[in-house]
Amino acid sequence: MPHIGLGAYQMHHEEAVRSVEQALNIGYRLIDTASMYGNEAEVGQAIRNSSVPRDQVFVTTKLANTDHGYDEALRAFEKSEKALDIGHIDLYLIHWPIRGQRKNSWKALEKIFDEKRVRAIGVANYLEPFLDELSTYAHIPPAVNQVEFNPYLYRRDLMERCRKDGIILQAYTPLSRGRRLSDPKLVEIASRYGRSTAQIILRWLIEMGICPIPKTVNHDRLLENFRVDDFQLSNADLKAISQFDEGLAICGDPLDYL
Ligand SMILES: NC(=O)c1ccc[n+]([C@@H]2O[C@H](COP(=O)([O-])OP(=O)(O)OC[C@H]3O[C@@H](n4cnc5c(N)ncnc54)[C@H](OP(=O)(O)O)[C@@H]3O)[C@@H](O)[C@H]2O)c1
Questions:
Q1: Which of the four pLDDT bands, split at 50, 70 and 90, describes residue 66?
Q2: Which of the listed residues 4, 9, 94 should we mutate to test ligand 1's pocket, taking the one with most ligand atoms within 8 A of CB?
Q3: Is 193 part of the annotated catalytic residue set?
Q4: Residue 257 domain-assigned?
Q5: How confident is the model over 187-241, as pLDDT tens digits?
Q6: Mutation test of ligand 1: which of 145, 173, 179 has the most ligand atoms closer than 8 Å to its C-beta?
Q7: Does residue 256 sit within a domain?
Q8: The CATH number of the domain where 29 resides is what?
């Protein structure tokens, strides 16, 4: 799986098609969409329009909260396949750990995987209690756990747990939707590297072994967010950024679903 990707939340219609096409031209090779984003068709259209061969693009989509359950999840996957219309889906995630149906949904994902209709299956918003529960019935462990994660929401224990279990941690809302990009502590570090604060955050995530999926519909920011592989943060700065945590969760608390 590519170590950085484009998040497609809140992109619609022509803007979604254009942004995904631009991202592929820039070099992005992972696109993160979801049934709940209502833009699988646009993402698929952009991938088909692109000159990048399909097998070089990694596409993630997710099971919507309203589609949990064994049969429901199987049907939802087929709907996503049709909407995307790009052949296979690379990664299918449970979007949120909905109470009561998590097990049935995971069993459906395992069936889809066993039938080789998807390259990998995983979860999103699975904090430790959900991973504990999943481990009691999963025959196939999740390849990926996608959670809200950035220096201002530094889930260190979860990161270490995923590392220990061999689960790739993918960071959503990696830029905290822009809310801390003017933080003076971050600005000071960015100015020393001659980089933007967004690039410093994305670099920090990558150096922590976490895969960020920043979203933007702006061409310059698509470039900016992708150009983070040509510099390294010093150990001192990695450590300093690791102190920025303030528990800033923007997308809700998954533990509400326990
Ligand atoms: N699994 C889940 O439950 C879940 C939940 C939330 C998100 N996600 C995924 O994660 C992706 C990213 O998260 P997100 O969209 O919530 O937030 P994000 O990537 O942290 O931030 C996106 C916001 O920041 C702006 N932005 C992007 N790059 C910037 C830059 N370099 N400088 C300044 N502003 C910048 C964007 O505006 P412009 O577009 O105007 O540039 C947008 O408003 C989503 O798109 C989605 O694919 C998953």
A1: very high
A2: 9
A3: no
A4: no
A5: 999 999 999 999 999 999 999 999 999 999 999 999 999 999 999 999 999 999 9
A6: 173
A7: no
A8: 3.20.20.100
